[in-house]
């Protein structure tokens, strides 16, 4: 049994993809169809505390003071089970999270949430994970969480299996990331009518434009990475806009269409 007197707390920040992740090649392992590039945001974050060794036969979770239930609770338990398996423990856990990110509103709350959960749970269970291992663990909760392990610019390598699908920081020789900023305007903080998971599934399965977007995607990512290396903000912005527009096109042609704006 772990020492319940030693909880662990972690904070992780949301990230927004410049070159998008939209669609899974493996739903269970959350392996994406494409690699992606993101910018981590300083003002939007989740702080989570995990304590193993609580009484009872079920995990407990709260978010902003409210008890987590249903699918959201099951996703938390699934990640805790991965940590328990790796640590060789069976203890139930208490998870307490506080969000500055509107939950499920399209601002990557699952990315910050599961990155924070992965970090806190691993530490509370006594695991010493590398950044790459922590990225892979966070990915199992939410794909974009793999990138929220890192600040600044991060690239998530799609990979083909659990070992090869992870995020890492992007080399930034000109310091371009220090000049990047995003303006976030919340028009509606309510939960999206179509979850990202459902939106991705629907797009991959029904959009006639999805495959062509995927085929263009590698070129977009390569161009964006080169723009970062050269410190070319104009080029980075142009390719990010092109990639996002293509993704929106695949969503619009899905059956039924996936609309967030």
Using only CA atoms, what is the Rg? 18 Å
Low-confidence stretches: none
Which class in CATH terms?
Answer: Alpha Beta
Compute the number of structural domains.
Answer: 1
**What is the number of strand segments?**
9
- Beta strand %: 15-25%
Q: What is the H/E order? A: EEEEEEHEHHEEHHH
Structural class: alpha+beta
| Sheet of most strands | 7 strands, mixed
Structure description:
The chain has 261 residues and is an alpha+beta fold. It has one domain: Ribosomal Protein S5, domain 2. It contains 6 helices and 9 strands, in the order E-E-E-E-E-E-H-E-H-H-E-E-H-H-H. Strands 1, 4, 5, 6, 7, 8 and 9 form a 7-stranded mixed beta sheet that branches. The protein has a two-stranded antiparallel ribbon with strand order 2-3. A hairpin with a 2-residue loop joins strand 5 (60-63) and strand 6 (66-67). Helix 1 packs parallel to helix 2, helix 2 crosses helix 3 (131-139) and helix 5 runs antiparallel to helix 6 (233-252). It is globular. The mean pLDDT is 94.
Structure summary:
The chain is of the alpha+beta class and 261 residues long.
Topology of helices and strands:
Elements: E1 8-19, E2 24-26, E3 31-32, E4 36-52, E5 60-63, E6 66-67, H1 70-87, E7 93-99, H2 109-124, H3 131-139, E8 153-157, E9 166-169, H4 196-206, H5 210-230, H6 233-252
Parallel strand pairs: 5-7
Antiparallel strand pairs: 1-4, 2-3, 4-7, 4-8, 5-6, 8-9
Helix pairs in contact: 1-2, 2-3, 5-6
EC number: 4.1.1.33
Domain Mvd1 C-terminal: 182-261
Pfam family, one: MDD_C
What are the main properties of this structure?
261 residues; alpha+beta; Ribosomal Protein S5, domain 2; 7-stranded mixed sheet; two-stranded antiparallel sheet; 6 helices; globular
């Amino acid at each position: 049994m772990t020492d319940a007197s030693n909880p662990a707390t972690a904070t992780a920040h949301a990230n927004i993809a410049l070159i998008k992740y939209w669609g899974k090649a493996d739903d269970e392992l959350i392996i994406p169809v494409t690699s992606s590039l993101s910018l981590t945001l300083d003002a939007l974050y989740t702080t989570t505390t995990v304590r193993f060794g609580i009484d009872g036969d079920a995990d407990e979770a709260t978010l902003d003071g409210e008890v987590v239930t249903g699918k959201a609770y099951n996703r938390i338990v699934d990640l805790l089970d991965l940590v328990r398996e790796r640590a060789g423990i069976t203890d139930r856990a208490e998870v307490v999270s506080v969000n500055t990110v509107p939950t499920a509103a399209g601002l990557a709350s699952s990315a910050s949430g599961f990155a924070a959960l992965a970090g806190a749970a691993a530490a509370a269970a006594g695991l010493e994970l590398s950044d790459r291992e922590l990225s892979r663990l966070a990915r199992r909760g939410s794909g974009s969480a793999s990138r929220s392990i890192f600040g600044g610019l991060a690239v998530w390598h799609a990979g083909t299996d659990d070992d090869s699908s992870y995020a890492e920081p992007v080399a930034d020789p000109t310091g371009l990331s220090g000049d990047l900023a995003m303006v976030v305007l919340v028009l509606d903080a309510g939960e999206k009518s179509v979850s990202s998971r459902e939106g991705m599934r629907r797009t991959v399965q029904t959009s006639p434009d999805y495959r062509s977007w995927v085929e263009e995607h590698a070129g977009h990512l390569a161009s964006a990475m080169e723009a970062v290396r050269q410190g070319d903000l104009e080029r980075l912005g142009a390719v990010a806009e092109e990639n996002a527009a293509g993704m929106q096109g695949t969503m619009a042609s899905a059956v039924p269409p996936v609309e967030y704006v």
